[in-house]
Automatic annotation (TrEMBL):
SUPFAM superfamilies in alphabetical order: Periplasmic binding protein-like II, Winged helix' DNA-binding domain
Database matches in Pfam families: HTH_1 (PF00126), LysR_substrate (PF03466)
UniProt GO MF annotations: DNA binding; DNA-binding transcription factor activity
Protein name: Probable hydrogen peroxide-inducible genes activator
InterPro entries referenced in this protein's UniProt entry, alphabetically: LysR_HTH_N, LysR_subst-bd, WH-like_DNA-bd_sf, WH_DNA-bd_sf
Record family assignment: Belongs to the LysR transcriptional regulatory family.
Entry-linked Gene3D superfamilies: Periplasmic binding protein-like II, Winged helix-like DNA-binding domain superfamily/Winged helix DNA-binding domain
GO CC terms: protein-DNA complex
Keywords of the record: Activator, DNA-binding, Transcription, Transcription regulation
PANTHER family membership: HYDROGEN PEROXIDE-INDUCIBLE GENES ACTIVATOR, TRANSCRIPTIONAL DUAL REGULATOR HCAR-RELATED
Domain HTH lysR-type: 8-65
Length: 329
């Protein structure tokens, strides 16, 4: 029987939400940096106060009860609201301050983060960004569960319950072995992809899907390529395969300074009349009250992208000239 005077603490709700997420008491305790007995005590206090069993314990596994499944979204919403309250209190002077957990896809993180973190360190010293690098589907799941505040990914996300802030459009360039016939070309059509043995990132990476979509526009099936069955989890690995002569690939222009300057590689551009790019943006929960902060953070990311373009031009690699910012924030 519940105690009508009982009010759960944020720590108790966080304990419940973390156990439900981890499905393991030891893992949840480690994630919260508390002992397992303290974790169990917090859960018992919550269940006793509510008069409801939230978690079913057994020697083999942890199960969220039907009542727990029903109450879990409310616990997460309460925790999210508390974080928003704290963030707004810390940012009452109109600047970004306090913790901000940012998800970012692997084909953007290595190239945008250095400039983004530099801007934050210099201009927003009270902001505490926590970075989570993961594939799009996992970032969206983390957003829904409240594990991250905002995510940088390719648009559209097509995710219900989310809002998007467009950031910039980013050209793809073709990367080939140094002795390839396309090396240095500036007039490629999409049909040229049919002449390449394309190396793709593994399924789940949005860049994999974007390259496949470009091929479909040209009525090409990249999976029929002999090397398209080769899958890598990072662009750096793909570049090493290109250097070794195992195929060619496409990369976003922000990756040029880090991935395309190594010996054995050459680049080529699509013709100016060919659209081959991706649109990047920020995605956040539509229920979040931190939209104004995310707009500020979006401006930081736009500046970071512009810096990455400057670095790309400094390499001497010829690039298409475009108007990259797609949202005047």
């Amino acid at each position: 029987m519940s105690n009508k005077e009982y009010r759960p603490t944020l720590a108790q709700l966080r304990t419940f939400a973390t156990i439900a997420e981890c499905k393991h008491f030891g893992t949840a305790a480690a994630k919260l940096s508390i002992s397992q007995p303290s974790l169990s005590q917090a859960l018992v206090a919550l269940e006793t106060g509510l008069g409801v069993q939230l978690i079913e314990r057994s020697t083999r596994k942890v199960i969220v009860t039907p009542a727990g499944e029903k109450l879990l979204p409310y616990a997460k919403a309460t925790l999210d609201a508390a974080e928003s309250f704290l963030s707004h209190a810390q940012g009452a002077n109109g600047t970004l301050t306090g913790p901000l957990t940012v998800g970012i896809i692997p084909t953007a993180a290595p190239y945008i983060l250095p400039s983004m973190l530099s801007i934050v360190d210099q201009e927003y010293p009270d902001l505490e960004p926590h970075i989570v690098e993961d594939q799009t589907k996992h970032l969206l799941a983390s957003l829904r569960d409240g594990r991250i505040d905002v995510a940088m990914m390719a648009l559209p996300s097509e995710a219900p319950g989310m809002k998007e802030i467009p950031l910039y459009e980013e050209d793809f360039i073709v990367v080939v072995p140094a002795d390839h016939q396309f090396a240095g070309r500036q007039d490629l059509q999409l049909s040229a992809l049919d002449e390449l043995d394309l190396l793709l990132l593994e399924d789940g990476h949005c860049l994999h899907d974007q390259i496949v979509d470009l091929c479909r526009r040209a009525e090409i099936n990249p999976i029929s390529s002999t090397t398209a069955v080769t899958r890598a989890s990072s662009l750096t690995t793909v570049m090493q395969l290109v250097v070794a002569g195992h195929g060619s690939t496409l990369v976003p222009v922000s990756a040029v300074p880090w991935e395309c300057t190594r010996p054995g590689l050459a680049t080529a551009n699509f013709s100016s009349d060919v659209t081959a790019n991706r649109r990047m943006g920020l995605v956040y929960r539509s229920s979040s009250s931190r939209a104004e902060e995310f707009e500020q953070f979006a401006r930081i990311l736009q500046r970071a992208f512009m810096r990455s373009l400057e670095h790309a031009r400094e390499t001497g690699i010829e690039l298409k000239t475009t108007s990259p910012l797609v949202n005047s924030i």
